[in-house]
Amino acid sequence: MRGPKGRQERIPDVSHTAAYDYSLPPERIARYPVAQRDQSRLLVLPGGQRAGTAANSEAGFRDLYFCDLTSLIASGDLIVVNESRVLPVRLLGRKPTGAECEVLLLRPTEAHGLAGLSHRWEALVRPGSKLKPGRRVIVSDDLSLVIEEGIPGGGRIVRLDTEGSIDQVLEQHGRVPLPPYLNRAEESLDRERYQTVYARDPGSVAAPTAGLHFTQELLHSLTDRGANIARISLHVGPGSFRPVKSERIEEHEMHYESWHIPSETVESVRQTRSRGGRIWAVGTTVVRALETAADQEGMLREGSGTTDLFVTPGFRFRVVDALITNFHLPRSTLLMLVAAFAGYDVTMRAYAHAIDSGYRFYSYGDAMAIIPNQEGRSL
User: How far apart are CA 195 and CA 355, in angstroms?
Assistant: First the structure.
């Protein structure tokens, strides 16, 4: 591979975590959403050129707005969204001594993973050195938590002590678990904006952020043009924020998340395939759910389960044809999934272009659309 002035450039080893590092100026982190959801910017990666659309001079990238999806998604295509709803699971309380503490609920201990089914949760606590089994955290007059036991990785099993339903007390006393890189407290706007407009299945501790850009009006415009919408649910866990710390990516232990794919979505995928349409995944969560539930021939099955699928370059995609996603943290499993889908070189050049062009990054940031060529993806 030749660089400027013909010098030989070193090709990164995509099996090393360091290959997925990049430098992001702090001002590129979007700490707040744009005023109108679908006015986020949209970077379209090579392979999706359509007649009448001017290409950016740099490697075929196109700089659009999210509302321009109507020019990219064709009649007969299927848009698969994650309808998981973010729960306000960050609880601030005090020990009986008056000392302040914090509990972040991760998932109910029941396999279904729905908020109303359990008073016992896996959780992260702070300060961990003070919240040992047997300790109590008082959140309000009608809600307290008892630390029942420790679990591997420094977490806890906690029991919510309340006479009300879990979802109601969380809505009343919990806070939105904003990503730590926003570096701010929850504000009133986050209750609406850190949630997709189609969210209805409670269970996530982080938003499936690619869907934050959709408005009901944009969804209606897409369906009016002949596209179809299908729904899955994958409850996003805290692993979304954790960088890969191992030197080689295959040494990373992937977090698991609960998913559900209804029979209607399986049928929609089958019909889309039969008529030659494309399957659009809105977010990496949708990719992981669909690819987990597919067999070797790409046939999708309905049902529920958990997945620890780690998608890295070399992965063979069986269901997803096009991907809508946000810009992800360095060294993250999400960035590795994007590199697997778009190709490592294209992905890293796209990130460099986005930084140079003033795109906004991470949960409240801008988006990209990846529409590979029919010939497939190249590393």
Answer: 25
Q: Which two tokens stand for residue 368?
A: 């990209």
What is the per-residue pLDDT across 189-226, written as a single tens digit (0 to 9) for each? 999 999 999 999 998 999 999 999 999 999 999 999 99
Strands ordered across the beta sheet of 41-44: 62-65, 41-44, 367-370, 322-326, 279-282, 78-82, 228-234, 257-261, 303-307
The label of the residue with tokens 């509990």 reads 103
Using the Cα atoms of residue 184, residue 188, residue 191 and residue 196 in order, give the sign of their dihedral: negative
Angle between helix axes 333-342 and 284-292 (nearest 10 degrees) is: 70
CATH number at residue 67: 3.40.1780.10
Domain match, 68 and 215 both: yes
Q: What is the pLDDT of residues 251-296, one digit of tens each?
A: 999 988 999 999 999 999 999 999 999 999 999 999 999 999 999 9
For 2-11, 92-101, 111-120, which range has the lowest pLDDT when averaged over its residues? 2-11
Comparison of pLDDT for 6 and 81, the residue scoring more: 81
Q: How far apart are CA 85 and CA 167, in angstroms?
A: 12
Does residue 205 share a domain with residue 100?
no
Q: How confident is the model at residue 60 (pLDDT cuts 50, 70, 90)?
A: confident
Considering the domain architecture, whether residues 166 and 197 belong to the same structural domain is answered as no
Range of the domain at 120: 89-175
Q: Which of helix, strand or coil describes residue 170? A: helix
| Same-domain status, 79 and 93 | no
Return the closest-CA partner of residue 294 out of 329, 270, 274, 328.
270
CA dihedral 90, 32, 329, 198 (to 10 degrees): 70
**Are 247 and 287 in a shared domain?**
yes
- Residues 266 and 340 placed together within one structural domain of the fold: yes
One-letter amino acid of 360: R
